[in-house]
Write a structure and sequence with these properties.
This protein is of the alpha+beta class and 483 residues long. Helices cover 59% and strands 10% of the residues. The protein has one domain: Outer membrane efflux proteins (OEP), CATH 1.20.1600.10. The chain has helices at residues 2-11, 37-41, 66-78, 80-100, 153-219, 225-259, 289-292, 294-315, 360-426, 432-466, 479-482, and strands at residues 106-109, 112-117, 134-148, 320-331, 343-352. The model is unreliable at 42-54 (pLDDT under 50).
């Protein structure tokens, strides 16, 4: 009969505390910012099926750049921050197994051998007794202890550890997405600097030729010395700009080296001017961000964990039941230590209940509920921040696409102006100052073309990052697999 009672106790425990329900998040049916025109015209634009056919996981492959693909793979294998985050995930996974061990009995053994000599002056011995001497104690006890999870405290503790492990796994994906995006941005910044270097090198050579022309005209008496001074000043200024770009290029190259886990001295990238435009990026609908963003998934998992903590705090109000048993062999000599008459055992339940704790349990419960409210607010704030990232970069891509078209028109007009004023200067119709002004305008516009392209590429990377980079919450490890 007592086995039946024990079985009922073990498997009839209830779960106190609130049942978890995923909190609502602010979601709109569509994004405020429309996509760029190039996205709308493409056959790849799919509102209801984001990223399903274009990229998943290795999102950087959408840029179709083999060198970028190779560097991104090195981030995956060599970045030290990722290795740290992966170790944190393994630590969280181990904590799940640690907490789950409480669902099973603890069995321990503590054999001991000791010699005991009683003092002849000990109390309760008859005066003149000669029975005092040394005795041996040989002990082999086995102890079994098991806490019955009557109120779900242990189960909730295991669930909370599992949800924290899932959140840590999402943190790992969030960091991975950020680091890969950072490398892509640094990569495009570096090759944007290469484009600036090529432009300024071409500009310096053109200015040098014009300076030589102005010098020849001055020597022939066809131009004043001030024209030579202006031409030389413009040439020197272009040379300074050319030299200065190498600083930023070196810094981006060093940053890429660190991201892939190499010392800057052991890494270099060949010059390759940025010239490809941004790819078409399927965006989808806002509600899909809740599954596409690992940081949102991590925040939601921590809400679930906080909910478990409320149940754990609630369970402290109820009594705990521990089943314990001990048994083994005890003898006074090695010859009778393991004999059947030397056996001993004891078994029985222990129930404990706190009658007064001066409000400690209430404070713990209030703290758990406050923490839950805070994690819900953090979750909703994370969702809002995700929407902002997507909206910001949709707006940037749309505006910059139009700006690039306008800038190309400005460059064409600036080149036409340089050719016109140079021709008029050579014919003596205009002073050299007009040529200087036209060349300055042309260089500024051509550099701005490169800068707008750089900003478009950066916005493309940030948009992909904002959309989750092809990640999906279904890739989180199930709690059962974490045990």
């Amino acid at each position: 009969m007592w086995l039946v009672v024990l079985w009922a106790i073990l498997f009839s425990g209830c779960m106190v505390g609130p049942k978890y329900k995923q909190p609502s998040a602010p979601v709109t049916p569509a994004y405020k910012e429309p996509p760029p025109d190039s996205f709308k015209e493409s056959d790849q634009w799919k509102t209801a099926k984001p990223m399903a056919d274009t990229f998943r996981g290795n999102w950087w492959e959408i840029f179709r750049d083999p060198q970028l693909n190779n560097l991104e793979q090195q981030v995956t294998t060599g970045n030290l921050s990722l290795k740290t985050a992966e170790a944190r995930f393994r630590e969280a996974r181990a904590m799940v197994r640690y907490n789950r061990s409480a669902e099973f009995p603890v069995i321990s053994v503590a054999p001991s051998i000791s010699t005991l000599r009683d003092s002849p002056n000990s109390p309760y011995f008859p005066v003149g007794s000669r029975g005092i001497g040394s005795t041996g104690e040989f002990l082999l006890p086995f102890d079994i202890s098991y806490e019955v999870d009557l109120w779900g405290r242990i189960r909730r503790t295991v669930a909370a550890a599992g949800e924290e492990a899932q959140a840590t796994a999402a943190d790992l994906h969030t960091l991975s997405l950020s680091l890969h995006a950072e490398l892509a941005i640094d990569y495009f910044e570096l090759h944007s600097a290469d484009a600036q270097i090529r432009l300024l090198d071409r500009t310096v050579r053109a200015y040098a030729e014009l300076t030589q022309l102005t010098t020849d005209l001055f020597r022939g008496g066809a131009a004043p010395e001030t024209d030579v001074v202006q031409a030389q000043t413009e040439l020197d200024t272009a040379r300074v700009q050319y030299t200065d770009v190498f600083v930023s290029r070196a810094q981006y190259e060093h940053a890429i080296a660190i991201l892939i886990g190499k010392p800057p001295a052991e890494f270099s990238l060949a010059s390759l001017p940025l010239n490809a435009g941004p790819p078409v990026i399927p965006v989808g609908v806002p509600s899909q961000l809740l599954e596409r963003r690992p940081d949102i998934a991590a925040s939601e998992r921590r809400v679930a964990e906080a909910n478990e903590q409320i149940g754990i705090a609630r369970a402290a109000y109820f009594p705990s039941l521990v089943l314990s048993a001990t048994g083994g062999f005890e003898g006074n000599a090695i010859t009778n230590w393991l004999t059947w008459p030397s056996r001993f055992w004891a078994a029985g339940p222990t129930m404990a209940e706190t009658l007064f704790d001066a409000g400690r349990r209430r404070a713990t419960s209030d703290s758990a509920r406050a923490n839950y409210d805070a994690t819900v607010a953090t979750y909703r704030e994370t969702v809002l921040a995700a929407f902002q990232e997507v909206e910001d970069n949709l707006a940037a891509l749309r505006v910059l696409e139009k700006e690039a078209q306008q800038q190309n028109d400005a460059v064409a007009e600036a080149r036409r102006g340089v050719a016109l004023f140079t021709y008029r200067y050579e014919g003596g119709a205009d002073p050299y100052l007009q040529v200087v002004i036209a060349q300055t305008i042309e260089l500024a516009n051509e550099r701005n073309v490169i800068d707008i392209l750089r900003r478009r590429m950066d916005a493309s990377v940030l948009l992909i990052k904002g959309l989750g980079g092809g990640w999906d919450a279904s890739t989180l490890p199930p709690i059962r697999s974490l045990h």
